[in-house]
Batch of 2 targets.
Target 1
Amino acid sequence: MVADSATLLWISVAYLALVLGVSIWGFRKSKTEEDFLAAGRTIGPWVGGAVLAATQISAGTFVGTLGRYYLTGVSWGYGWFGVWAGWVVSAVFVAPKLRKFGALTVADYVGTRFASEHARTLAAALIIVCYSILLTAQFQAIGEIAAAVFGVPPRAAMALLLATTGFYTALGGVRSSSYIEFVQTLVMILALVCAVPVVLSHSGGLTALGEYVGSIEPRVTGWWFTWKEILATGLAFGLGIAAAPYEMTRYYSMRDVATVRYAIGVSMLLQVCIAACVLTLGIGMRGIYPYLPSPDQASSILASTVMSPLLGSLFLIAMLSAIMSTVNSILLVTGGAFAHDLYKRLVNPGASQARLVWVTRISIVVLGIAPFWAAGLKLGDVQAIVVEQAKFIASFFFVPVVVGLNWRRGTKEGAIWSMVVGFLGCLAWTFTGQHTVQQHGIDSVEVGVVLSALAFVVASRLSPPTPDRNLRIFFEE
Amino acid sequence: MGFGWNLYGFFLAALIWLGLYFYWAWRAAGRDRARERDRHGR
């Protein structure tokens, strides 16, 4: 069992020592808010691409997505094209303008573009709430993995995750986090690429695997989902990615607009590698263990029984990396939103740079504690929480970001109403039990985004235009 | 009964997607450089 292996201990120690070293370097380099929240605008396309990929790839990918492939097979993979379509929308309509603007937080954009401190505060508050829920899912995931693989109490694993990730995020900010996430992405890719030949050799090769799995359940090698279901899922993921605050804040840290575009391409390249490997591993595990009680067990059984101690340890570290990188990005966004958009604007406008950096650090730690507590309550399964919060963020944020950056006539009234109506529309559709594709063919994110767009257009048309000085940076051409 | 075109089609479509994206990013970077040159030339 990999869980008993000294190999895992040594790899973990080396990994955490590397993380600590990079964090201390980041700590020494972060003197101002721009250093801490935007890495001094120094991040290049390869590190930037790895950061964007690491932020998106979470516990859901290694546990939930691999489990989905185990259960449903190839057709689930086509949902990735929705994710990548979201990235393309971001690259064409969002990222270049945000990078040119060069602020520090996403709420900065809302406040400046719509000339409204109320819109900024609302955006910051909604981001903190939704991302705290996403953080809960990440804590829950580490708790479940630790309990399944090591028999460790979930609370202990959650506390360790908060202590390590909270510490290195608060210490080094975006600069060191970016290089740590670069390493974490490499670890994820290495572990997945090494796992594929092991699983294929256990299942007799790709052709034999396809024939065997197809004989057990033909829909795994054929079409489990209809095109309508794939499109609905892809749309939900794409809308979430195109305006995801934890991805958008990273654009600010990159060197220039061209770097951001290439970084998004690098991120998609890395995601294609990860998607192909996770797909093969999920179906491969179905060939080796066709009747697991839960599809979510496929990844932990893969690491603990199919792979050698060394590769199994690497795979577990990759799962840990996926969780840590997502937690790290969430903490940077929520900590930044609290310190930069709420504390600096509402509490202490005259705060010095050094004070703001320390308030961000303290916010990062404090905002990690509430989700840590909530994770113990088990509000839902990990994959469901991840998917639902993405729908809420898309519902209140897609329109003010994507439409707001490309339609001059959008106003602060439009932005505020679109966020409120989008959020409430998604909430109402979800809690009236009408959120599943199977029941009505309309997903809650589609309801949220459409209502948000209507509110944005109507309220903007009925209110005075935004002053030109606020629009100039976004509509230069 | 085994894997069909939907598996291999996924990989092929992903490669085409990436190729088109990087071509667009490269063209966009060229346009940006030309615009910058024009701005400084004026």
Target 2
Amino acid sequence: MANAQSQFLRIFSGSVTYNRWQSYYVNTSVSWESATWAYQPFDADGITAGDVESEASINITLPATTNVIEAVLTALDQARLVELRMYEFDTLLGNSTPQAGQTLIATYIGEVVNASGSFTSITMELGSSLSPVGAQVPPRKFNTRLIGAPCKL
Amino acid sequence: MSITSGTAQQRLDQARASLAAGRKVLDAARLGLSTMVIKPLASVQPPLVEQAAAGSSALDTEQRGAVLGEVIPIVFCRRVGEIGGVLISPPATEARFEDNSLTNPIATGDVTASYHLVLAEGRIDSIQIRDVFQRACRIGTYTQTYDRRAGTFVPGNFVTNTPDFEAPYYCGTGGTYAGLSTMAFAATTPVEFGQWNRQVHCFVRGGLWVTRILDSVTGPSNNVVDLLLYLLKAGSRVTTDQIDNASFLAAAQFTQTNGFWYNGIEDQSTNVRDWMASTLPLFLLRSSRINGKQALRPLLKTTATGAIDTSPVDFVFIFTEEHIAPDGFSIQYSSLAERKPFCVQVLWRQQPTDDIGLIRTTDVRYPGTAEDGPFEQHDLSRFCASENHAVKVGTYILSRRRHVSHRLSLRVKPDTFNDTLAPGDIVRVKLDRVASTGASSVHDYLYEVEQIGKSVTGEVQLELTEFPVDADRRSVVAQEVATAVGQGILLPTGKSGVSCDVNSSGNTGVPADTAIGGWSATGTDANGNPYTVDWDNGGDEFEAGTDSDGDGEANSTGITALSPSRTGWSGRTDNPKTSTSTPSITGATGAGGITNVGDELGFTLGCEGGWTEWRLVDDATGQYTIVSSGVAATYIVAETAAKAGKSILAVGKCPDESAPGGYGPEIISAPVQVKPPGSEFGEGTIATGLNSITGLSSTFNPGSQSQWTNFELVSVGIVGGFSNDTNPLTGLPTTFRNQIVWNRTIGGNPSQGSARIFPGYVWVTEAISGDGSISFAAAYDAL
């Protein structure tokens, strides 16, 4: 038995999927779950589950090609979701296409909350839009439209 | 990890959590998992600041006015049975003060004070007559509505007949009140009682309407999970795709089953993460992540119905030596401070059904311990109206602190647990400790999985907390919390004296909803144009600005969203270059940079103390004569230079102490030509055999320097050319003749070409064309 892990990445919003990428099967598109996943080299952090403060985020680094930059920035701009899946499988049973029985060991769904990188690579941070500074509750404040000029008592 | 806004206590809690997280990150980095950030584990943290109960309400105070920018409170409660509801003290946005008049026939000396109050964000249940107070008295009349302005009174100060009584003059204008629950309250009292300006209080039995997660009914809720969902969706715009509904539903069931209800007001601006971190543990819940989604988990094992599970627990996996990676075992024991017996003092709110509530404290301690302290105060009075809730939370804090002795960090190799283990699962860690001397021992404990970190290398980082169990493998903490029940004693409110109530404490009626259908205001803009601010019943947007279309209503140009372009720009594609040109000679007054006699020429080097040398250069031989030199020297063009037909060059040097001569390399200007004195330039005709020039144009554009140092004869149809030998003028030097270069042939005659012009001489032609003239590009007058 020789275990290996593959990663599949999907950028979507609602029922619409914009990108399906996988980084394991080099230079080939593979079929998995009734969809085609194009080869796109990327590197993802580990996935942490059960975090207390819900601050866990993961970073996915991709080459800064035109298509990737377009996809990442659009996802960032439109608050699209990204699903990262990690599969584990036995390479002795096949290493050219995803195996039907491969095990899903981790899944992460997050918004593209940030993007940065170098000239040659771009890293998108997946997490929750619960900004440490922006997500204030209660959400609304008294304003002129709501209450006009309030009385001075 | 960042410290965010919040109360001082929250910031301190965060700072402590940040430090703990930082230590764990370092540990993880040592273990080769530098990309994995380990967070602090869930628990109810002891407060660093203990203060008065947050749920307490002062009754006899002045009516508070709303302030722009102040948060609109969320009133979240639902009275079920004898538990729940919350007393609010809403701010006023409009007011009206009126004594006896034709429109207000009240007794002389009385005053009617009307207040328009904002009760809460969103729609809340109708408030019963028995639940509206001014000070501590059930008096006055009111009407309540939603999404519009309640009542019909016109705000203002209409006190005209009461001497020595002064009411506020700025009485408010009103607005849309969109999405707000509002109330118009009025009470008439004698002026001398001084009660006209007292705070209005309302006991809300049903707060913000939401779609309850447990029964999908829209209405008030007391489930903290419903409140969190509202805050996440309405306040923070978290999409439903990022919320783990199953865990939220289970958490809601847990709080409902165990009576952990939320009956409170959220009126302090708080980051939602801070709110979750500080509030959820007090409902024995913890915020979590499942597959990246926001999730909730009870702090205790639960049954399918949400009850605290006190049955024997089973573990899902056993970790032994074969699973642990090298150096993958790290244990952290509880400190001495955490092990000392103490008493948890919980603040909560007792809420009678027909009276104003009171704050209660409940002491939770193990028998015979901490009778005199130390006390650790946890304030649940902001939202907790149940003694059992307070007691169970206190018990959990106490029990966990007493029984959980250590935490474990494990780095393990992947195994079959990889796809099954989840946070909250119970695992067993059984390791043999074989010593070279003495007896061997076994580390054999049950743990609850707090965190699972999965890396691409396959190794898994586990954060485990001891799960103390009894001999029957039943959770000790769960048993203690499940059996902890409050005494159930309801204290009297302490209210005494002659009742000031006018309305009955048993009146559960609700006044009719009376409201204004819309509101507008008129005024004059900065340009003197009339405008109308139109707030139609909370539906229209506020239009502000000048009345550009003259319809009497103000218009706003607003913001037009433009589409930025990041590609395809026209224009230059390079950056400005650093100038490499040498300084030029300044001071030439002639057209095209030609100097005239008398011009004072300068040469700006761009350095202080620069040395300048002026040279007259023979263009034919390149030889030069220095005519002036010195620091910042100038040169006044002399007539001799003009007659000599020489160019002028400036050679400058900037000071350089490191150079042998004290100056840096030479900076040589472009040459400038000297205009011959009295000369004219232009196109013209030289008549046959004459030494005069006619037809000179009044303007001459040299275009470039060469055009006047080497004039090209551009005549057509001429025969022959210049002949120096037949120059009718005397004194034409041979050198001059030799300067003529015949290098161009027109019409088969080799006598056309360029000639160098020298000042002081007249050119004539020897052979001319049939019309007796020759066209030329330039000439000059004799001196």
